[in-house]
Amino acid sequence: MNDNLTIHPDGRTTLRMQRRLPHPPAKVWRAITQPEHLAHWFPANITIDGDRITYGFGPQGHITELDPPHVFAHTWGDDELRWELHPDGDGSILTLTHTFTDLHGAASFAAGWHTCIQALLAHLDERPAHHPASTARLHEDYIAILGLDPATTAHGDTDGDTDGDTVRLERQLTRHADHVWRVLDGHHATPGQTPPAPFTPPGLQPGPVTRAESGKLLEYDIPGGTVRWELTEGTGHGARLIITCTGAAPTTLGAWRNHTAELASSLVD
């Protein structure tokens, strides 16, 4: 398995995944380009009409490169997919590159494509595919494999005063927002009271809750700043978590990173 990310200067991200398949390129080519074969493993119902592709839902795409049996490249809305085949003994090397704008969705994309390629291999082997009940653990593994760090920090003033730092974390989760809210004990969040313990990492002194919207948002004061938790629509089947902590000391960055990692781990079945 050879999977990695490239972040481009324009803000787009490319996920590259490479697998050896014990089948010749001609056979694999049919499986990755013909709708009757794609139906067994691709995550959408593909229809190809000339260079136009429809996926059964969401935006359409078009074929951007076709070099049988080596390269099949196409768009899916704003995303770009490129499938490359090279012979390797009696088998093939399949390389998928997926270019997209949502960096923090990369683990969801990787987990999804890994599962699809496993189904592709089963189809090539002419055996039933195993469809996992959940890809949550695989998603969390890909967070580590791809080196996705959810945390950033920036100075909040021109003097570089550390008391003015802003810590921001963005992380794709594997469960829907209502479930995450219950895990955070969010139903006990009350304006004017201190937030439930799961909303605060060790070492941070919380003040009163200033705003709470069930399953969506919680804000509270801290000495010299504020903390804001947001749960929004994410990539895949879970919510996107965004935490913004203003007026934070640089030492809180690691605490927030660990806190969100522990939360994400607790959501895995």
From TrEMBL:
<comment type="similarity">
    <text>Belongs to the AHA1 family.</text>
</comment>
<dbReference type="Pfam" id="PF08327">
    <property type="entry name" value="AHSA1"/>
</dbReference>
<dbReference type="InterPro" id="IPR023393">
    <property type="entry name" value="START-like_dom_sf"/>
</dbReference>
<feature type="domain" description="Activator of Hsp90 ATPase homologue 1/2-like C-terminal">
    <location>
        <begin position="23"/>
        <end position="124"/>
    </location>
</feature>
<protein>
    <recommendedName>
        <fullName>Activator of Hsp90 ATPase homologue 1/2-like C-terminal domain-containing protein</fullName>
    </recommendedName>
</protein>
<feature type="compositionally biased region" description="Pro residues">
    <location>
        <begin position="193"/>
        <end position="205"/>
    </location>
</feature>
<feature type="region of interest" description="Disordered">
    <location>
        <begin position="186"/>
        <end position="211"/>
    </location>
</feature>
<dbReference type="InterPro" id="IPR013538">
    <property type="entry name" value="ASHA1/2-like_C"/>
</dbReference>
